[in-house]
Amino acid sequence: MESLKDWNGIADANSPEVPFLEGTRRAALRLILQPYLGSETSLYEWRSTAFLQKVLTNRSPKWLPASYKSYDDLLMDAADQSVAKMADLTKSQRIQDWPWRRFDPLEMKHPIGQDGLLKKLLSITGKPQSGTRYSVRAASEHHGPAMRFIANLADWDDSILLLPAGQSGQPGSSHYSDQFSYWYEGKEILAPFSDDAELKMRKHVLKLQP
């Protein structure tokens, strides 16, 4: 991919370089492990990045499949497979049609909100997002930060706390997903520590009685 030489290295939702590299990584891992694991390459997925980095750095002959003359040939094949898969998934040969958001949308699905009307009412899906499973912003289709917390040690009342959706797990509540836009867009919600500061910010009180 020609644009890689000018890529800024950011896993942006609009970047076509990210799905290309992700696809190449998966294809390279599969090609290296297939002689040993067959199609069950998921058995090594939990540490695939460290393993693949070590193999490609050391380029040990013992891990190079017999069908390839060099690791460069293997990587070229992996890149070709990545391109072919993106073209197949998007039904397009245009790089402009391969932004990362098409391959890794945010899918926060409620256990009973998988499809149909319940999905629309209970789940948050189809949201474009930046980041990958291995980037600083660790995020994938079904994986992401369950909380964002920044503590200001000089002023605890100026700390920030964000939840992916809201504080209420009750569908229909105004607090079911009222924090999502803040979490999704990276906006702040202050989380005061002291009683006085908390009292000033308090808007609602929930009382649980027997």
Uncertain stretches of 5 or more adjacent residues: none
User: Can you give the mean pLDDT?
Assistant: 90
Main β-sheet: number of strands, strand sense, barrel status?
Answer: 2 strands, antiparallel
Based on DSSP secondary structure assignment, what is the total number of beta strands?
Answer: 4
Rg value:
22 Å
Termini gap: 64 Å
Structural class: mainly alpha
What is the number of helices? 6
Kindly give the count of domains: 3
Order of helices and strands: HHHEHEEEHH
**C-alpha geometry:** elongated
Q: How much helical structure, as a percent, in the residues?
A: 25-40%
Report the β-strand fraction as a percent range: 5-15%
In order across it, which strands form the biggest sheet?
1-2
What are the salient characteristics of this protein?
210 residues; mainly alpha; two-stranded antiparallel sheet; two-stranded antiparallel ribbon
Q: What does this protein look like?
A:
The mean pLDDT is 90. The chain has a two-stranded antiparallel sheet with strand order 1-2. It is elongated, with a radius of gyration of 22 Å. The protein has 210 residues and is mainly alpha-helical. It contains 6 helices and 4 strands; from the N terminus they run H-H-H-E-H-E-E-E-H-H. The longest helix is centred in the N-terminal third of the chain and has 21 residues. It folds into 3 domains: 101 residues, no CATH class; 37 residues, no CATH class; 66 residues, no CATH class.
